[in-house]
From TrEMBL:
Domain of life: Archaea
Family annotation (InterPro entries): CobQ/CobB/MinD/ParA_Nub-bd_dom (IPR002586), P-loop_NTPase (IPR027417), ParA/MinD_ATPase (IPR050625)
Compositionally biased intervals (Acidic residues): 256-286
Region described as Disordered: 256-291
Protein name as catalogued: P-loop NTPase
Residues covered by the CobQ/CobB/MinD/ParA nucleotide binding domain: 6-207
Length: 299
């Protein structure tokens, strides 16, 4: 039986896409049939994090527009992971109808499906929360990120989808990850350390299980995969984490940090721009329908 998780956050840049990519790769490496789906129809970047060229074939946008079969959109990714990318062309954004997402999910043959949702509030970001079996929140320990994530959690509650818990990213020895879960009123699923290997792997388009199988962050994603599936063998077979905080690793991380931020959701300015694209023009019928949906949802 397929289990669908919407991996969601309140804003970009907190590690949501990185979590989807690496969690999916860990599951696939462990023998689970896993599919990751980029449902950020306007600004998707999941494919790039996994070393896949979204423009080299059919995408989720095509499936939602009715111009391609779902089977034509699924790409083979690293570690045996299946990837359904979103188009990175703005012209394809308006053609895709998010209400077709349930049919797409029904066509996928997998144990676990992870939906990489878009940031902000729009019809396109709410629909994945509505159709998922559970929501996995992703946040850093920063106050602003927690506040935005709390809004996403509230939306999930309003559409009737349970929140499984929160993954806190970029943690250090000083981070109180448990308090993040407490502030959100949900369980802490896992704490992902601020590991230089994460940025290096994302910049290279390679998941951590391939690029740095013994890194601390890789071990954390293995624990998260075990928590989601109940398959303790995922962590039992993992190598002992090796240090990734040496001078060379830190230098590599600094060199790619800016790129990693862009891959994982961008700056707040990018988020504002994305929200503008998501809500669309109020002059169009589609925009009026989506605006009305949100007013109904949040009213």
């Amino acid at each position: 039986m397929t289990r669908v998780y919407a991996v969601a956050s309140g804003k970009g840049g907190v590690g949501k896409t990185t979590t989807v990519a690496n969690l999916g790769a860990v599951l696939a490496e462990a023998g689970h049939e896993a599919v990751v789906v980029d449902v950020d129809l306007g600004m998707g970047n999941l494919a790039g994090v996994l070393g896949i060229d979204a423009g080299a074939g059919e995408t989720l946008n095509d499936a939602l527009a009715g111009t391609a079969e779902v089977s034509e959109t699924v790409r083979e990714g690293p570690a045996g992971l299946s990837v359904l990318p979103a188009s990175d062309a703005l012209d394809d954004f308006g053609k895709a109808d998010p209400t077709g997402l349930p049919a797409v999910l029904d066509a996928l043959d997998a144990d676990v499906v992870l939906l990489d949702t878009s940031a902000g509030l729009s019809h396109d970001s709410v629909e994945p929360l509505r159709v998922a079996d559970e929501v996995v929140l992703v946040s850093t320990a920063e106050r602003g990120a927690i506040g935005d994530t709390a809004k996403t959690s509230e939306v999930a509650d309003r559409v009737g989808t349970p929140v499984m818990g929160v993954v806190v990213t970029r943690t250090t020895a000083e981070t109180d990850a448990e308090s993040v879960g407490e502030r959100l009123g949900v369980e802490l699923l896992e704490s992902i350390p601020d590991d230089p290997a994460v940025a290096a792997a994302a910049a290279d388009g390679t998941p951590l299980v391939t690029a740095a199988p013994a890194a601390p962050a890789t071990a954390a994603y293995r624990r998260l995969a075990a928590a989601l599936t109940g398959d303790d063998s995922i962590t039992a077979t993992a190598d002992e984490p090796a240090s990734t905080t040496g001078p060379a690793a830190v230098a590599d991380a600094e060199a790619v940090a800016e790129g990693d931020e862009a891959l994982d959701g961008g700056t707040e300015a990018d988020d504002e721009s994305a929200e503008g694209i998501d809500t669309g023009s109020e002059e169009g019928d589609d925009a009026n329908e989506r605006t009305g949906f949100l007013r109904w949802l949040l009213g």
